[in-house]
Amino acid sequence: MNAIRNFAIIAHVDHGKSTLADRMLEITGTVTKRQMQDQILDSNPIERERGITIKLAPVRMLYHLESITYTLNLIDTPGHVDFSYEVNRSLSACEGAVLLVDATQGIQAQTLAHYNHAKKLGLTIIPVINKIDIVTADIEGAKKQILDILGFDSPLLISAKTGMGVQELLQEIINRIPPPSTSYQLEATRALVFNSNFDSHLGVIAWVRVVDGQIKTNDKLFLLGTESFASALEIGVFSPAKTSTGHLSAGEVGYVVTNLKDLSQIQVGDTLTVNDQQSNQPAGLQGQVTALPGYLSLKPVVFVSFYPIDGADINNFRTALSKLRLQDSSFTYTPEFSPALGNGFRLGLLGLLHADIVQERLEREFGLNLIAAAPSVSYQILTTTDELLTINKALDLPDPSQIKEIREPMIQTSIFLPQSYLGAVMQLCQDHRGFLTDISYLGNLVQLSYSLPLVELIRGFHDSLKSVSQGFATLDYELSGHQAADLVKLDVLVAKDKIDALSQIVPRSQSPYIAKGLVERLKNIIPRSQFEISIQAAIGGHILARADIKAFRKDVLAKMSGGDQTRKDKLLKKQKKGKARMKRFGRIDIPQEAFLTILQA
User: Fold this and answer.
1) What is the pTM assigned to this prediction?
2) Which residues hold GTP (predicted)?
């Protein structure tokens, strides 16, 4: 165990984590030059195309230093805030972390968020400045930020692209990060499940970090969180492909192929132990095994409804979701019906980028053509009988007479930006119902901490932030519970018929402005008919905004070459009666594009 080092690479998105992992694999000889390709640990084509990491990727490397062969277990992590749960569980399996800072951009929001989590877990942190070979690199500025904000005075300087300084970094990892420790008094085996996936040939595969004891092929296993029994069919390590070793000992990171067929039986953060063959109880200490810290069930924060463009594809869509969930268990789905868009599914996701990735995978890997409605969040409803309900869309809102209060999800945001954009960003946060909780000046940077409703974030806050700061501001957030707010249900009526698919939950104070914008957009989208169409936005029976679509007017006098005015008036009155009848009995065909444009606005 003294020759094992477990560490992760953490950084803001696009600061060079995957490139650094590539260089380490090259230098240690884990991957040959013939096998080498950029972002080798990013197995999904979408990760390569977008240049981002979505899933964590472990790899085992062997490095020789002073006649000792060290085992380096690296976990490459995502940088985007939507996948911060991946970073959290990666760090739980490590003793140290390489904190990467881009020399051209300095410390960003996710840099600080990942640093704080690693510090909370008590990991050894090695600060590293990357991209020092770029002409625009501000190495001294990055050093000053690391000293002022993080308190490290001697960061390592590397170029992950050229390999400059990576040898020295590997030596620092060995010298500074402690080897794993184990509870020698504890006879039982304990392993932390930090990821899992489903293989169509092998079944459920658990990615584990063994903390105590060892796991061998054919061992009987027990998962404490889900209380599931399993068998170890194959055991091995990632180098970077799966390589069977037959056993994993304390301190090692690898995989266990189980005989399970349902991915829900292995949850991330669960504790895996070995059963006694005779008694079918956890071995050691008479079956008393305590779970490892880190078990946390994932909760979706953003809900998006997806509908197939061709209604006949609904069964293919259902099959595709069940298959995709075997690879990504972090989303949920439930059937849904929309009067405008037909049958579909409502997906619970970790963020907007996660929603984008899931939609792209469904379309690319399963050949589906999908329509995505606007994202929404879950609300808590406290009824007059003190019952607490959770709803995900406005249609499920109870009658106002039964509602005591509506609670919306809140987030604690951390925004990093240059001082010159401070006024514009603070005004933006106030316009989105933000409450300032803290402000810190870090050299030329400012860190703002705001309490903000989650629904404001998914209604374009991030895009507006990039706009007012000319792209210099970065954002990190975490959920901070629910808070009571003055919210109301805004209904849309077209020709006095309520269109449920367009209902939404909005702040009462902003409802007049939202209502006005909504009816104006609908007015420009819904086609004209032979009769006048009224569009109204209302709260209960109170109309907040109205717009009218004028009717087409047929020229009934065109066939008359002359005649007195009474004949013309007679024809016009006949036309007016006909239009009145059409208005009473005619149906309005609202095009699908109208719903989508409103939902996505």
Assistant:
1) 0.70
2) 14-19, 130-133
